Each structure stands twice: as C-alpha cells, then as structure tokens.
TrEMBL record:
One of its GO terms (molecular function) is ubiquitin protein ligase activity. The keyword Isomerase does not apply. This is RING-type E3 ubiquitin transferase. It catalyses: S-ubiquitinyl-[E2 ubiquitin-conjugating enzyme]-L-cysteine + [acceptor protein]-L-lysine = [E2 ubiquitin-conjugating enzyme]-L-cysteine + N(6)-ubiquitinyl-[acceptor protein]-L-lysine. Keywords: Ubl conjugation pathway. InterPro entries: U-box_ubiquitin_ligases. It comes from Noccaea caerulescens. Its EC number is 2.3.2.27.
Amino acid sequence: PMGLAHHVSRAIEKGTFKDMLDPVVTDWPVEEAITFAKLCLQCAELRKKDRPDLGKDIVPELLRLRSLGMDNNESGQK
C-alpha cells in the first residue's frame, strides 16, 4: 500500500496526477480528485497521530465531495 501512496504523492508533486486517472472517464474534476487523493494519503499515514480525525476532518470532506458529485450529476442530467 505504501508503494501506491508514494506514486500518488509523487504524481501530485510533479503535476502528473491527472495521468493516473482512468482515461475512459473524460470529464474528471481533477482538482477535486487531487483533494480526495491528498485526503487519502493523509489517512494512509503509518502513525495514528499523523492521520486526520474521522469525525472532524474526514466525514465533512466526504460529505462535501458527495454533494459536489450529486450536484454535477444532476446538472448533467438536465
């Protein structure tokens, strides 16, 4: 798992993260995907003290991303 985290982290740093996304999906919200990837990287930290708090940090961000996805889905159906 840390190998994957390293590759994702390096891709974000180098500005090549978009190249890691599924090419079949042509309309990725890249900035939101990067935000989500960074959150995932924080959750993958080895030491518990370095990981974000589930209730305070993770849940609100996941709810925000879900809302964004639902809004995008609804606007795409109109």
